[in-house]
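Note to self: keep these together.
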Amino acid sequence: MKKFIIERDLPGAGKLTGTELQEISKTSCNTVNRLNKPYHWLETFVTENKLFCVHIAESEEVIREHSIKAGFPLKTIREVTNIIDPTTSSI
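Structure:
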C-alpha cells in the first residue's frame, strides 16, 4: 500500500459549514466501504479553495476510482515517497 496526497479544487472550501464537511466525510467513508479494496482515508486539510487529502491505497487508479464514485473533483495525485519532521534532524 502506498500513501498519496490528493489535491482537489473546491471553491469556497474554507467557508464550508460543519454540516457540509460532515456530508463530504460521509460520502468519502461510504465510497471507501463500497470499493471492496484495501483503502484508507487518513485526513483532509481544508484551505480557502482546495482540499488536500491523505489516502493510503494500492495505486493511483484506485484513488481515481474513489474520486469518480464519490463525485469528488480531482486535480492531482502525488505519491508520498518519504516523510520528514523535526525528529529527522537528529538522525
